[in-house]
Structure to design on (634 residues):
């Protein structure tokens, strides 16, 4: 799972939420993996209307997307490049002083809004802070009030309007300022009117420009990461705004029952590299893929001396710079390996640049596309850095692990010119993909157990809790807990969002005529609503199977390649394979655990009792298992 700090949602105003909580949902996409297989009888179809969250209304979507396109170019071409220079030149302590000054000078707005909301203690605390920081803190450059334990009481006009009963009704993307809504947009101008620097003349007005730019620059790396990962960052931000912009806390009832597997899986949302600059320290190169003649980007980290090279292959719809991939890359790099991070074959970046098929589903074709891409990656890296790499390893997570195992048993005599690896490591790989597909389709239907009269409210509250968990000050309030239905639903929703993007990418390139809503780029929400009601079972039987049947591939043949048990003998004979998994991984059946134990030796197979699906990847014992899986490569 990945999680991004979304402090840039509205960088020019202090009334913006500080973190994008819905990423808790989308983050699981960085490592997970359903498709379709046939051993378990497929469910009929889950394309009945899924219980989905209510996102903010977007009546101006076409216009908002045009504004976002301009904002996106400014972020990419102006803010990100200059922010790197700014942070390299201006010391962290100086930037901290700029933030202190900005908060101190905007005291009048907080005072007024505390009073308008009847928060008398808050008004007193903010006044005490202002006097202390203005005098002892030398005009607010320092923050002695915090050291003295004086509480902060954040207050703005958005909070005030909310308390007075104004409910936002429409989403708005503001030029330069970013995401907003009709209430928030008005409150933004009211906050600016309460800011003393608004009325200042030079040179004091320059301070306003500096503090504004500092806010933007502080989140530039997160901005860049988001724009790379998300195929539709506009939708991603809008969905997040729907819940992070709420001014009240969600309900947090004590769970009646817990599902440890899905709940532990959500822990992966907290995975981030220890070094906040780890992504920025990577090298990036664009690889021309010979089969498509298009270019695919990779990120890599190079040791100073010759070292083994490890390729990281993430799961369904996962991107090379998602946090879980970066977390694993950092672990390996610190252990002395050079590392390459690649993008999933189910991510639009790969599908649109390196896939020879219109949509992924048939393992031999998918594996060949991946093999071609990685071979070209290796050629380019060897040419750029001769004599820097020794042995090669491939580590796949979830769907990436499944593909790693499939690649380990390919016939090398038929394609000797393609890359091969000295070790194939599968972390939390599924065994039977149809089981995973059916299970995940059922997860998004978990709220159907709730009474119909309260179902929508509880679905919304679940997403609100996910958002609040992400950015709430844990020193002030406990973490929000999830019961069994909620944790399953979050996992199911994540996968459904990933499927939405897969379908949008494949059908806009080759419309098979299944989707009824027009495939437009400017106003997508009606289309997305239809796409969200297609299940993984639907994806296989309504999209993938018909497509591959036109290529001469039967359903039985496609399904045969979607179950590792159909390749038992070849896998058993492959001594370069290592498998790391959790007994309570929801993608595994009890019979899958038995099959793994029966066909792989104790030196090849490590099973942890807990962790869900990749929820324990950052634990010391799991790290040690990954290092042991690579023993002998150095």
């Amino acid at each position: 799972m990945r999680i991004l700090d979304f402090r840039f949602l509205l960088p020019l105003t202090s009334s913006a939420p500080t973190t994008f909580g819905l990423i808790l949902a989308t983050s699981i996409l960085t490592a997970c993996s359903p498709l379709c297989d046939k051993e378990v009888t497929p469910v009929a179809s889950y394309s009945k209307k899924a219980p989905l969250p209510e996102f903010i209304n977007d009546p101006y979507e076409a216009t908002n997307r045009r504004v976002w396109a301009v904002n996106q170019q400014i972020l990419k071409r102006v803010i990100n490049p200059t922010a790197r220079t700014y942070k390299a030149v201006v010391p962290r302590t100086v930037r901290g002083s700029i933030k202190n000054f900005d908060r101190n000078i905007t005291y009048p707005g907080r005072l007024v809004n505390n009073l308008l909301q009847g928060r008398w203690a808050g008004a007193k605390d903010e006044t005490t802070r202002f006097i202390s920081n203005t005098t002892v803190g030398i005009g607010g450059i320092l923050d002695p009030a915090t050291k003295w334990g004086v509480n902060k009481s954040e207050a703005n006009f958005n909070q005030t309007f909310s308390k007075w009963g104004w409910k936002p009704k429409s989403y708005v993307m503001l030029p330069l300022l970013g995401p907003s809504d009709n209430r928030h947009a008005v409150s933004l101008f009211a906050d600016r009117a309460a800011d003393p620097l608004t009325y200042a003349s030079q040179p004091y007005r320059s301070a306003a420009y500096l503090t504004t730019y500092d806010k933007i620059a502080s989140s530039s790396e997160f901005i860049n990461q988001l724009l790379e990962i998300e195929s539709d960052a506009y939708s991603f931000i809008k969905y997040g705004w729907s819940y992070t912009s709420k001014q009240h806390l969600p309900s947090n009832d004590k769970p009646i029952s817990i599902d440890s597997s899905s709940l532990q899986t959500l822990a992966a949302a907290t995975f981030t590299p220890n070094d906040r600059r780890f992504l920025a320290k990577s090298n990036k190169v664009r690889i021309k893929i010979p089969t498509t003649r298009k270019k695919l980007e990779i990120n890599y980290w190079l040791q100073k001396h010759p070292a083994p090279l490890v390729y990281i292959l993430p799961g369904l719809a996962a991107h090379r710079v998602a946090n879980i991939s970066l977390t694993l890359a950092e672990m390996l790099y610190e252990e002395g390996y050079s590392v390459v991070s690649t993008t999933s074959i189910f991510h639009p970046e790969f599908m649109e640049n390196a896939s020879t098929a219109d949509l992924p589903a048939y393992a031999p074709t998918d594996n060949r596309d991946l093999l071609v891409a990685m071979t070209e990656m290796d050629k380019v890296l060897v040419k750029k850095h001769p004599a820097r790499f020794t042995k090669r390893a491939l580590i796949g997570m979830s769907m990436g692990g499944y593909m790693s195992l499939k690649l380990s048993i390919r016939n090398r005599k038929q394609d000797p010119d393609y890359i091969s690896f000295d070790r194939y490591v599968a972390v939390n790989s599924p065994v039977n993909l149809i089981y995973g597909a059916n299970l995940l389709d059922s997860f998004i239907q978990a709220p159907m157990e709730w009474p119909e009269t309260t179902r929508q409210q509880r679905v919304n509250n679940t997403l609100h809790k996910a958002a609040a968990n992400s950015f709430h000050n844990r020193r002030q309030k406990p973490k929000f807990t999830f019961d069994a239905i909620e944790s399953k639903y979050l996992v199911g929703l994540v996968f459904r969002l990933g499927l939405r993007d897969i379908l949008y990418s494949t059908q806009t390139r080759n419309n098979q005529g299944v989707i009824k809503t027009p495939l437009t780029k400017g106003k997508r929400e009606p289309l997305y609503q239809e796409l969200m009601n297609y299940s993984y079972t639907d994806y296989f039987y309504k999209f993938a199977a018909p497509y591959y049947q036109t290529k001469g591939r039967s359903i039985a043949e496609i399904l045969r390649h979607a179950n590792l048990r159909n390749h038992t003998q070849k896998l058993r004979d492959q001594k370069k394979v290592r498998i790391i998994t959790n007994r309570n991984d929801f993608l595994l059946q009890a019979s899958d655990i038995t099959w793994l134990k029966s066909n792989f030796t104790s030196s090849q197979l490590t099973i942890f009792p807990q962790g869900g699906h990749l929820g324990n990847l950052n634990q010391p014992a799991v790290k040690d298992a990954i290092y042991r899986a690579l023993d002998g490569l150095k």
Summary: The domain at 271-431+558-629 is CATH 3.40.50.1820 (Rossmann fold). The first strand starts at residue 171 and ends at 174. Strands lie at 171-174, 178-181, 283-289, 294-301, 307-313, 338-341, 389-397, 423-427, 577-582, 605-608.
